[in-house]
Amino acid sequence: MAKKADKTRARLPRGFVDRHASDIRTVEEMCAKIREVYERYGFDPVETPIFEYTDALGKFLPDQDRPNEGVFSVQDDDEQWLSLRYDLTAPLARHVAENFNDIQLPYRTYRAGYVFRNEKPGPGRFRQFMQFDADTVGAPSVAADAEMCMMMADVMEALGIARGDYVIRVNNRKVLDGVMEAIGVTDEAQKLTVLRAIDKLDKFGPEGVKLLLGEGRWDGGKEGEGDFTKGAGLDEENAQIVLNYVGGKADQLDNETFQAGASELAQIENLCRAAGYDESRINIDPSVVRGLEYYTGPVFEAELTAEIPNEKGEIVRFGSVGGGGRYDGLVSRFRGQPVPATGFSIGVSRLATALKNLGKLGQDAVLPPVLVTVMDGDTEAMAKYQQFTQTLRNAGIRAEMYQGNWKKFGNQLKYADRRGSPLAIIQGADERANGEVQIKDLIEGKKLSAEIESNEEWREARVAQMTVKEGELVETVRKMLAAQTGGAAR
């Protein structure tokens, strides 16, 4: 006997998700509101491809021979390495450098798209996720950084987040570099480890960060529990100096780097206050770091401070939903000349989840389509059903004609129930002869739909349905949908 062919097992790659209609519509609704704010500030859209030459990603390359740690990389037919973009900032830097002579500076642009991380997935940590960025390239003044902070505050409020439920927190890498200069940290790798340790303050608290500033930390909190993260190697005294600074307990330092950063923060604060953004909306906060090493000046984060229920109903603090800063060196890598730049990136999926749980998104859900049922399969009847369907669509009403096996009418009603269809359009031979059509309210008649198995039973039941002339179909459907949704049908 012939061996049955092996079936391919359907499986989703780890760290990736399938998105469904409600998720897609929720994100589109959110992005439309963000886009409106960006446009109001005078930013224009641009789009870059998801693949870049790997060397264009710059500091994301731990291994030049086979650069696939942290990023997903492949070789093309001429043996050049390509990588899926890690964020939207490095591709923008490449785009600006490549088109530098054709771009009007300052270049103010926004874009949304997926980015990819070749990292170990975990709860809430995915290998593919969406970001929505805005950037200004060619503006050396910290007025551009202040504008980013103000624009992010406006985005939060455009999304329905009340004042007091969010804050834009601001710091400066120069200030942090000044602190490290004061404690004698000059090695770039050690600096980055210190910065990444500080960036975990919200997650691990001061004691956990102190371990990461020193020898390192076990994930489980105790020796031998979980994985070990090697620390920055600071002694206890210097680790405490760093912690004092990020905790707002340190004195001003007199080194030039620290003072330059402090001066820029003062300018940002002055501009924001002059524009009407008080410290409850935009706040100078020494604990803000940002983990990416290409930042060169001001850095900022948008944080949700409200207590928000998660999917399990547990009250949580969502924390950061976006961040950014000044990255004056990225475009310069390609140009060999100074090109100042600053930008902000919103974590779309994370923010959408928070907004949905707050009841700020998905309230104007798109109605499922009206179902035009099929009572007869002859050419004349099918043409009529198709005509009804298209008439409803042309009137702006979502509609579909049943495409399955029409002979068992009960299956059509079960299909409509699974789809959540609000109404069913029905026309048998008698109605067709009279130029009439039946409209069934499926919300009201849902309880009996599964019990009806034949056309005869349906004609006898007439549950929650009305008869109208064909010419009254659109008007009647509109009224019935409005009654179901309180006038919010779309």
From TrEMBL:
Alphabetical UniProt keywords: Aminoacyl-tRNA synthetase, ATP-binding, Cytoplasm, Ligase, Nucleotide-binding, Protein biosynthesis
TM stretches of this protein: none
Domain Aminoacyl-transfer RNA synthetases class-II family profile residue range list: 34-368
BP GO annotations: histidyl-tRNA aminoacylation
Catalyzed reaction equations: tRNA(His) + L-histidine + ATP = L-histidyl-tRNA(His) + AMP + diphosphate + H(+)
Principal location class: cytoplasm
GO MF term set: ATP binding; histidine-tRNA ligase activity
InterPro entries per record: aa-tRNA-synth_II (IPR006195), aa-tRNA-synth_II/BPL/LPL (IPR045864), Anticodon-bd (IPR004154), Anticodon-bd_dom_sf (IPR036621), His-tRNA-ligase (IPR015807), HisRS-like_core (IPR041715), HisRS/HisZ (IPR004516), HisRS_anticodon (IPR033656)
Keyword Transmembrane assigned: no
Domain of life: Bacteria
PROSITE patterns given in the database record: AA_TRNA_LIGASE_II
EC assignment: 6.1.1.21
Residues binding L-histidine, per UniProt: D87, L88, T89, R117, Q131, D135, R290, Y294, Y295
Keyword tRNA-binding listed: no
Subcellular location: Cytoplasm
A Pfam entry, by short name: HGTP_anticodon
GO cellular component: cytoplasm
Family the entry assigns: Belongs to the class-II aminoacyl-tRNA synthetase family.
Subunit and interaction comment: Homodimer.
Name the record gives this protein: Histidine--tRNA ligase
Taxonomic source organism: Nitratireductor aquibiodomus
Lineage: Bacteria, Pseudomonadati, Pseudomonadota, Alphaproteobacteria, Hyphomicrobiales
